[in-house]
Amino acid sequence: MIFPLTVVNEVEKAVAEHANKPFMIGYRLSPEEGSNPGITLDDTLQFVDRLANQNLDYLHISVSDFWNGSFRESDRTKSRIVKIYDKVGNRIPVVGVGALHTPDEVAEALETGVPFIALGRELLMEPHWIEKIRTGKEMEIRTTLSKKDQDELVIPDPLWKKLIGVKGWLPVVD
Ligand SMILES: Cc1cc2nc3c(=O)[nH]c(=O)nc-3n(C[C@H](O)[C@H](O)[C@H](O)COP(=O)(O)O)c2cc1C
Known about the structure:
This protein is α/β, with parallel strands linked by helices and about 170 residues long. It has a domain at about 1-120: 3-Layer(aba) Sandwich (Rossmann fold). Helix content is about 40%, strand content about 10%. It has helices spanning about 1-20, 40-50, 80-90, 105-110, 120-125, 130-135, 150-155, 155-165; strands at about 25-30, 60, 95, 115-120, 145, 170-174. The strands form two sheets. The chain has a four-stranded parallel beta sheet, with helices on one face. Strands 5-6 form a two-stranded parallel sheet. α3 (about 80-90) links the parallel β2 (about 60) and β3 (about 95). The protein starts with a helix and ends with a strand. The structure holds flavin mononucleotide.
């Protein structure tokens, strides 16, 4: 933990010294590594317990699916994000993420108590996600990426080629 905690301390110092308006500092982490030796979920739970006392503004967990459990521990059923939230409680706001597309899916994730949800791939497919909910157009929210929509979504060519080309990244339809 020494290296990341030293980085956090230095960042906090730099913000205290240089920021002339409110400046959020968050920490985003991947909760486990597949290689052995590598970071385990148990390591991460100890680490987030320390991070929760660091005066950070948020903790953001990098996973591909909000509900996925550990891929290397024997208890694989409970969401890693929820386990992290259970560990830190309300000491630091946890941001969950991962394969959440519809408002109902996001509401179900929020029911775990995790206070914030981020959308990544979904916002690439539907940049007007929030606006459509606000204006009662939930049924029009896109949950797939159509090959016809590149211009409308203003996705530059190199990113577009990757998004379309790498199988499993996004639900691409013709
Ligand atoms: C193309 C692609 C690249 C990504 N690169 C990173 C990365 O460099 N670092 C990281 O922490 N997460 C990365 N992620 C994971 C995302 O940040 C996010 O956790 C994941 O896509 C799940 O959220 P979403 O379903 O809302 O997109 C990447 C995801 C995708 C699809």
